[in-house]
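User: Before I run my own analysis I want an independent prediction to cross-check against. Here's the chain; please return only the C-alpha cells and, at the end, one sentence I can use as a sanity check.
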Amino acid sequence: MKKALKDYLAYCENRGLSPRLVRAVINQHGDWEDWMAGAPDIARHGIDGGFNGFIYYSETCEFARKNRSLIADYLDQLAADVGESPTKFVQGFSCLGSDYSEAKIGRCLYGRGDDTQIMNALAWFAAEECAHAYEDWDYESRN
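Assistant: C-alpha cells:
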C-alpha cells in the first residue's frame, strides 16, 4: 500500500504537530519520497548525522526563522505537557549544552534574537519531531 502524505499530515495534526510545520520540514529535506526514506534514520539516530536540508547553518537558521512561530507554538504545547517553560525545555536540548540562558533562548524563540546555535537547535528539533511522528505513524499503519 502506498503511503499517502495526507494521511501522515492528519496523523501529525492529531498529535498537535502543525501540518504546515510538517510540510516545511518535508520540503526542506527534499520531497515526500525523500522524507519517507530519511525520516526513519533521523528518528533512530538524530538529525545531527547530516541529513539533506539540515546540514549547514545557512539552511537550518533560515528554516528556523521562516518557521519560528510554528516551532514556538509546538514547543509551547510540549513544554506545557511536561510542566516546564518553553525556554527551559529548549535549554535541555543536548546540542546546546549549558551555555544558553532562558532569556537568550526566549529571544530567539519568539523573534527578537537570532543566535546561530539556538536557531540550528530549533530547526533540528522540528525535523526530529516530524521524524518521530513519521516512525509512529508508519508503525501504527502497518499494525
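Sanity check: The longest helix spans residues 116-142.
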